[in-house]
Predict the 3D structure of the following.
Amino acid sequence: MTARKRDDAAKGGEDSIRTGLSEDSIRLAFLDNLFYVQGRFLEVASLDDKYKALAYTVRDRLLHRWVATVRTYQQTNPRTVCYLSAEYLPGPFMGNNLLNLGISEVTRKALAGLGIELDDLLEHEEEPGLGNGGLGRLAACFMDSLATLQIPAISYGIRYEFGIFNQRIRDGEQVETTDNWLRYGNPWEVRRPHIACTVKLGGRTESYHDEAGRWRVRWLPSETFRGVPIDTPILGHGVNTVNLMRLWSAEAAEGFDFHAFNRGDYYGAVVREVRSETISKVLYPNDEPEIGKRLRLIQQHFFVTCSLQDMLRVLGTTELPPERFHEKFCVQLNDTHPAIAVAELMRLLVDEHHLDWDLAWQVTHNSFAYTNHTLLPEALEKWPVPLFESLLPRHLEIIYEINARFLDEVRMRFPFDEARVRRMSIIDESGPRYVRMAHLACVGSFAINGVAELHSRLLKETVLRDFYDLWPEKFQNKTNGVTPRRFVMLANPGLARLLNETIDSSWENDLTQLRALEKYADDAAFLERWRDVKRERKAHLGLLISRLCGARVDPDSLFDVQAKRIHEYKRQHLNVLHIVTLYNRIKHDPSSDIVPRTFVFGGKAAPGYFMAKLMIRLINAVGEVVNRDPAVAGRLKVVFLPNFSVKLGHALYPAADLSEQISTAGKEASGTGNMKFAMNGALTIGTLDGANVEIREEVGAENFFLFGLTAEEVEHRLAAGYRPRDLYENDAELKGALDLIGSGLFSHGDRDAFRPLIDNLLNSDPYLVLADYASYIACQEAVSGVWRDPARWTRMSICNVARMGKFSSDRSIAEYCRDIWKVSAVPVVL
Ligand code: 26W
């Protein structure tokens, strides 16, 4: 280690060991960390030692930029976006950080020089599964775009010790196992105990008059504990901006109770620690609410009060007083899960900062914006008033006051319409009393948005109609997007390379530049290279499938992929009906000319969701038979890839030929998987639901396989009295498929195995699976028709990618910044 390198290090010079981006400095830094952090030398180092050594090497380069970012923000005191989300699915950090630092290739070389495969270290990394699905992943894409667009932002959430469960498939069934993602520790996070917050819970309130004789209320909690912030640096792509993901971990105010221990009450000595830690112990694995889950409400209050206290602490470091909170911060509520924030900011401003109510309300109302992610009525959170009263007595008082003033406004605008007042009230008085969190979010926010044009329109016409009548100016649409960094550059480097060799690399931070691709759609040589990129990814996925499922698949078959949470409205069972229909056709006529297809499924079912678990069983049961039937002769393969995650998505999205986006129209708020598949050249078969509508608009109807009822037709069909059994009686192929499933063929003769599913479809079919069956099957035939013309398919694939510019999360974030957050970029110079 030359002297020059050492002093270079001190100065954080270009090529210093701690911050240099050259192959040399990365190799030296890696060995340094292996030695001085892991206490290992290469010959004895484990895979985890090597992974940690590289992680600390990369982390140093992130912290270098983090410090510069914090310094810049301290000097400029910029308006800052605070994103409150109960869920984050960031995916594995290493690959993305190397990409955003622009050092993936030098690092690969630096390690190769030491006989280490970078891919082995990437494979080793656990991903933080701190979310269920779309909502959590969107929050992560937004973090990447906020930093890349150099927008000052803090993403607040909960550091669950155990994330979304690991899914194993045993005898065709989902089995959940604990996600102990922190077992080897997490090198990417930094604990900040010195800015921990106190969290109150339970107890009662009492009013008093302060020294100035003013009436005040104080909350006397029955218990308190601490929220410790654990920070993860989030670096933008090709910039120096490092924003924070600040996740809260719950700990006891006083860890170990020595006195109890002395009294020999060993349980007593640790009970407080255990109780408080439980709060951030585990993520709720449901992507739809379960009424009255006490711990869930505590979790929501926990991260919200810590986050708002933290914002007020940061405000305190500037010259701005609390009554100008809304000028410094704009707080985005990621669905209703953090909606308690409206009452909590009022409590902090009125009770602790002694603002008067009206001023505090003005500040609060100008601070919050609310994003709705689902129309499913059962997914709109509401909490029993008694539970609220016992856990958050002061918040309930404040909510009553907010509600009283709100309903006065409603009565003023709509006199003599008490039905509307009852419908809009934050308190549901229709039976047992509930606090409607979506109503609290709407009343306390200056902006309300849906996540796709159709969804935002349906929000105004259905679940939030009354609020739209009252405050039309609050309602906006912000169509979702995904980050092309992780989902193209990282997941599909072959495609990224081909794009950069064909058009320049400006698409990486401006996805609309992909348009330039269109002129190559008729270039035979380019089509060949395009197909090679896809073929290589399919072969890669094929290897993964054989490793994880022991099944051999043909990479020249049509890869037909449906990967998302298992849910009846997403209709994985409609996909299975297509497979069984094709199987029946082969059984009736083995010579029938079926396009060879590999059906790949992925997705977790909420542990308590019976029908979703039965759908997983059905997919695996059909696969068992079809995959082994000699008559099929390999023309159909059904694979269920276990443990769908962001990491598995890296292998799935680039390898799909056909992307299944087949939800009942009006049910999928947006979807984001649809964007990731199309951005990687898959063609979409889908309904006019969520963002499918806008994808079809952008890529062109001729490049999209559309089927099914529209959202309006769905409503009319249900309103007109829907009798699914009639369809079953009048469609031979449909009857054939359902009867085969009911026959026990796929369940070792057990005719009752799938009875609940069959009965549901024949008697109620709430998601109109049977109503869309014929249109779906016909559309799938059109798909096969195009597949038989590879040049046509490839041209459509190129057009899809060329026209996906709109669906970058950079565009979504730019719109939020312009229309809601009113923030602008603050470049950071190193
Ligand atoms: C309380 C339990 C719970 C947990 C999560 C209820 C609801 C949720 C989420 C709202 C469910 C979710 O992930 N919604 C999805 O959000 C995506 C991002 O906007 C959309 O693309 C999906 O269409 C929507 O289903």
The pocket of 26W is lined by residues 132-135, 138, 286-289, 335, 373-374, 379, 381, 451, 480, 668-672, 690 (CB under 6 Å). The radius of gyration is 28 Å.
